[in-house]
Amino acid sequence: MRLHSVEAIAIDIPLARNFGGSTYAVLKRSTVVTRLRTDDGLVSEVYNGDNREHGPEIVRLILDELAPLLGGQDLFEGEAIWDRLFALTHSSRDRKTLMEAIACVDCAIWDLVGKARGQSVCALLGGRPPRRLPIISIGGYYREGKTLADIGREMESYREAGMAGCKFKVGGLTPEADAERVAAARRAAGRDFVLAVDANRGFTVEDAVRFARLVEPLDIRWFEEPCHWHDDARMMAEVRRATRIPVTAGQSEITSHAVRRLLDAGAVDLVNFDASEGGGVTEWRRAAALCEAAGVKMAHHEEPQIAGHLLAAVPHGTYVECFADPERDPAWQTLWANRPVIKGGVFEVPDAPGFGLILDEGLIRRYRV
User: Fold this and answer.
1) Which of 6, 46, 213, 318 is deepest in the core (most CB within 10 A)?
2) What tens digit of pLDDT does each residue of 24-51 get?
3) Backbone angles phi and psi of 38, in degrees to 5
4) Given this model, what pLDDT does residue 217 score?
5) pLDDT tens column, 239-251
6) CA proximity to 125, closest of 259, 299, 288, 340
7) CA–CA gap between residue 271 and residue 248 (Å, rounded)
8) Under the phi-then-psi rule, with left for phi > 0, alpha for psi from -120 to 50, and beta for the rest, what region is 37?
9) Residue 52: helix, strand or coil by DSSP?
């Protein structure tokens, strides 16, 4: 079974308001749909990523640089195909964007292999039934005029949406002010609700440690990307030694080799490497193997349509993440037309072949770039 052609579509969906964290703004939901076809008519159906600046460039890379390397290739030689695509990164270029383009193609190949063999991607990776994971919503966004009572109502809305917990944004205020926000979230959510915090590299080491010590009594599942980017592995290792809250990072890395850097530095208790940022399923699987050998658990940055299959396939997988607020992620709410119903904080991994996605064609036509 050989690869025949590829279609890539960039999508931008405007959001009603800014869903920003400590170091960034989010005014639209962006993604790339990839349809890879075989010579006997199989078609992949998958969407990847949330690159709000370079969607059209990702599409150009797929069509102009990756597609010529795919034609006529055996679908079942995924490792060799990945190596051919990755070789393009050796020349000087925007490697991050290229790795996102490679991820789109790699995930499309895994989707096709699953369809060819009648198995889900989770099953291909060795995941055994029941294939399910707890699911948490990303939230706690900063908004002008947002009160502690508003934070409480937000946590209640996630419970009503069937979430097991929330990954809460911090790092944009003083440690004391952010700790007060997290305390309000814990009071409203209750002790049985998973609560993690994510600074998006917003703190210095000193502020990260001060914040961590303030929220330690609140049973925080993890402290994600606590420190500024420029020396993050060393700084996170310092924070990790100074607090009993587990430290998480990895979403900003684009290769398994970079994940190894975090492990070697003793910087993390969990790794949330993103398959859509780092070359797809093939490279994520390598990162997961490194983490398992190091005794480090796996999470995943966003992307429940991909992450559920990956995390449920490994013994050290933890939580699927989504945006339960329908205003934040129209892709999760509407682009994924056959999205599983969330109940009791549990995400059931689709059992259909490949990633099991059916996408809303009308939404694609309306918001394609």
Assistant:
1) 46
2) 788 999 999 999 999 999 999 999 999 9
3) -100, 170
4) 98
5) 999 999 999 999 9
6) 288
7) 6
8) beta
9) coil
Q: What is the pLDDT of residue 283?
A: 98
> What pLDDT, on a 0 to 100 scale, did the predictor assign at position 114?
98
**How distant, in Å, are the alpha carbons of 121, 189, 301 from that of 282?**
11, 37, 16
Say what the pLDDT of residue 117 is: 98
Whether 222 and 44 have beta carbons less than 8 Å apart is answered as no
pTM for this prediction = 0.96
pLDDT given for residue 299 in this prediction: 98
Q: What span, in angstroms and rounded, lies between the C-alpha atoms of 319 and 367?
A: 30
Partners of 317 in the β-ladder: 298
Which residue ranges of the chain lie beneath pLDDT 50?
none
With tokens 């919503």, the residue in question is 137
CA 118 to CA 108: how far, in whole Å? 15
Model pLDDT, residue 291? 98
Cα 342 from Cα 160, distance rounded (Å)? 10
| Long-range residue pairs from 291-299, CB within 8 A, at least 24 positions apart, any chain | 291/259, 291/263, 291/316, 292/316, 294/263, 296/263, 296/268, 296/269, 296/270, 296/271, 297/269, 297/270, 297/271, 298/270, 298/271, 298/272, 298/273, 299/222, 299/248, 299/250, 299/270, 299/271, 299/272
130 cis-preceded (ω within 30 degrees of 0): yes
**Structure tokens of 44?**
């992949």
Residue 139's identity, in one-letter code, is G
Task: Provide CB contacts within 8 A for 335, sequence distance 6+.
Answer: 11, 31, 47, 359, 360, 363, 364
Backbone angles phi, psi at 169, to 5 degrees: -75, 130
